[in-house]
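Hey, I'm writing a tutorial for new members on how sequence and structure tokens pair up, and I'd like a real worked example in the thread rather than a made-up one. If someone can provide the structure for the chain below, I'll link this post from the tutorial.
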Amino acid sequence: MTDSNYFVAVDRKTSGPFKGQQIRNKLNQGKLLKSDFIWREGMTEWLPISEIISEISGVNFPTLPEQDAGPHSMLMEHPNELPPTEVEIPPKGIYEPPATLSQKNALMKFGCKNPETLDRLGRDQASFMINAFEKDALAFVQYEAGKQQKKSAKAAYTIAVMVFVLALLAAIVYALTH
């Protein structure tokens, strides 16, 4: 193991110098990947970190246990006879800030009644959910409009049949009286 100064390249951008422990910390934090490139004095070319990880000094922390990334789905309940819809929620990002108060309020207006779920949502997750609820609400409005059109068409048909029957009765009465 050496205590060299290392330089790293991520997305074709170089940074450094870093000591070995700094490289290991960045790997553990997910800021560097083992597939990112590294170089130090004495190397002839940039190599993936995975190829020289054993020579990088510092403590190699064990990987963290899997943490709960928050809710994975949310049930949207609708008024009337429409069945509830379950919406999948994308995973929360590592550095994702929590949902804003206005996002939480919007989700409560859409029918999210679980405060623990709202507290654990990230900002991007909340945006995704609001978009999903808006699409679902639009589908609900279109469904209701379709029902109203069917009712209107049925009422118009009923009125037309009634007018036809009355005209037919008037014609029969006229024919019998003349």
